[in-house]
């Protein structure tokens, strides 16, 4: 592999056969155009684009009639050279040169640019490349655009890792969850405690009751694992992993959450978190008053201070307390992710909205939530197919 100047590439590669291809999980194959004239040069470029959350995998080989071997020059190269930009730069200014086969390259993000330059193989062989999308577990915690009391409307797809959960027996009592793998979400036990008796539906990219939803898709919950096998909220440890029947379709409005593996000893005291949900805008209202998903910013307080402020509950180490005057989570926000923005700009799910203060106390007392760092090993153990990237 040889790195080279982009100015050279721009001069060498023409526009004789430039294509833009959308890449998904199903492999696509592309080749340089054939010509009957031996020695005619081939100058082609392919722009490959996968959906956000995926990388492009490129595999190339040369096919020849009857499997005849191909001559190489003194460098051990064929007459054709492939140039690959792993970040999809159209001018190939950061591309690497590949002059031997087979070739296997993976993009750095969701785009790749491939250029071919040289004489077409004189024995009518041809470069054949296959490209497909591969899920990238490290592409997590994205915020596409820069029950909540005192909150404001969330922007479309602002929290793409969050989903809404509906019990088909009571569609007016919404819950929330957070995507942690291609088939699993984290949520509150309260949201799925009766999943055996009633079908539960997961909705992705759902932020308003009105209008057209570009990325909304419904998934049925297939199974649930609770920290306590009985899924009894009264036992504490309000955390559950729900598995859907088919894999999520990732796109700009549906992404995976980052979990705080690198912050596993952080208390987050004094930090701010964002939370979004369908909870009541005021503690005396109804869910019908909330046509749009709400969001708010809350402060993490110490468990000690939290205990001093509470009148009905007590907190223990696996709890995370939030308190900001005039705003809070409320009924209907159960299972929502508590999103902390790291120095790298990623959103980390450090908590799950759990117990809310009773009645009108939504805005008068702290909320008690599940602290994710206390359950990281349990999450990994009960979602073994997941790839968790410590970003």
TrEMBL record:
Segments forming domain Peptidase S1: 148-384
Pfam family, one: Trypsin
A GO MF label: serine-type endopeptidase activity
Disulfide pairings: 17-44
Start and end residues of each CUB domain: 17-99
InterPro entries: CUB_dom (IPR000859), Peptidase_S1_PA (IPR009003), Peptidase_S1_PA_chymotrypsin (IPR043504), Ser/Thr_Proteases_Immune/Dev (IPR051487), Trypsin_dom (IPR001254)
Swiss-Prot/TrEMBL keywords: Disulfide bond, Glycoprotein
Gene Ontology BP term (one): proteolysis
Family membership noted in the UniProt record: Belongs to the peptidase S1 family. CLIP subfamily.
Protein name: Putative trypsin
Organism of provenance: Nyssomyia neivai
